[in-house]
Amino acid sequence: MALIVQKFGGSSVADAESIKRVAKRIVETRKAGNDVVVAVSAMGDTTDELIDLAHEVTPLPDPREMDMLLTTGERISMALLAMAIKSMGVEARSYTGSQAGMITDAQHGSARIVDVTPVRLREALDDGAIVIVAGFQGFNRDTKDITTLGRGGSDTTAVALAAALGADVCEIYTDVDGIFTADPRVVPKAHKIDRVTSEEMLELAAAGAKVLYIRAVEYARRHGVTLHVRSSFNNNEGTWVVESIDGPNEGDTVEEPIITGVAGDLNEAKITVVGVPDVPGKAAEIFTIVAQTGANIDMIVQNVSAAATGLTDISFTLPKSEGEKVLTALRAGQGSAGFQSLQYDDQIGKLAVVGAGMRTSAGVSAQLFRALSDAGINIEMISTSEIRISVVTRADTLNEAMRVVHTAFGLDGEAEAVVYAGTGR
């Protein structure tokens, strides 16, 4: 008997019919002789609707109360799913994150899991029940408060449960057939990848691929959890996230493709610190100010200083949601840091190409830049790692950039990809 953890996103449980379809799939997995634990997201766009409602009440919702509000979405879907399973003659029990033993730090809105104590879940499994857990939420032992894990939190919940329970596999169900070479809503010719390394998946997730969130991939890699990303709308095999790509014979390693996938992100902004004295310590001072806000910085570019003035410009990208607090902090520290002014640009797009084969292949950068040049798309910033090249373009050119780069690297499939629900979650 295998233990399988399954995660169903909001589009998979968007309405009553969808919930019944998901319940049928879960029951089939149980009747095949497996123990089943399910992590479930809020129905459809419930979380976004609750956020909008909170901002109608107050422009600055209290973080603690916001978490109390947002966790109601998953409680609704978990209870309805348990009811649907019970109606099929199979025992099911639903649990909130705190009941399931998801212990987190005290950071409201973006809490991190510090421990999982699934005592009640093991008892339910021993009793032969299917276990349904509300994703995205946990509990802090010190404050005794409910917390939420941030975007993609249900993925992280599922992976954490799989690690704590020693599951054989963690299945992430979504509205596409697996992980694609690009977002099929943007690049219709994208095709499904059968296997992808966790290293490549981390880079794709960091670059904006939304089918799996980076925290879930990191957790799975750290704890050795096998991930299988597949569609909740059919029984086809999806994409396996593995440590390495093995060949047909045990121990063989297949030479990895140069480029595995293309990702795009429209949720970043760029801040340029203008007129920074080009002397030791100034960059450290600026980024110390930024670090104190807790913002996540992505790409950083410093220009060559002007000989006449001894001043330089430093540009960096960060999530749009963190732009205002970073600008406020930098303005407050302008006197001590000694820069001249700040520029803010939230009309940018980030494109990344990812592939483990880049380590041993020359000319990838030239091919990428040539494809963008031929399409008349300008590059504003460039960043690289061993297996990734990222560039910043204008926001209104990002989708076209993804399509031309996907074609340039020979990733186009023969048929258009199928998207069943339209949200990717």
UniProtKB/TrEMBL annotation:
The keyword Kinase applies. Its EC number is 2.7.2.4. One of its GO terms (molecular function) is aspartate kinase activity. Pathway: Amino-acid biosynthesis; L-lysine biosynthesis via DAP pathway; (S)-tetrahydrodipicolinate from L-aspartate: step 1/4; Amino-acid biosynthesis; L-threonine biosynthesis; L-threonine from L-aspartate: step 1/5; Amino-acid biosynthesis; L-methionine biosynthesis via de novo pathway; L-homoserine from L-aspartate: step 1/3. Keywords: Amino-acid biosynthesis, ATP-binding, Diaminopimelate biosynthesis, Kinase, Lysine biosynthesis, Nucleotide-binding, Transferase. Coiled coil: none annotated. Residues 271-347, 353-425 form the ACT domain. It comes from the Bacteria. SUPFAM superfamilies: ACT-like, Carbamate kinase-like. It catalyses: L-aspartate + ATP = 4-phospho-L-aspartate + ADP. Belongs to the aspartokinase family. PANTHER family: ASPARTATE KINASE (PTHR21499), ASPARTOKINASE (PTHR21499:SF3). Catalyzes the phosphorylation of the beta-carboxyl group of aspartic acid with ATP to yield 4-phospho-L-aspartate, which is involved in the branched biosynthetic pathway leading to the biosynthesis of amino acids lysine, threonine, isoleucine and methionine. This is Aspartokinase.
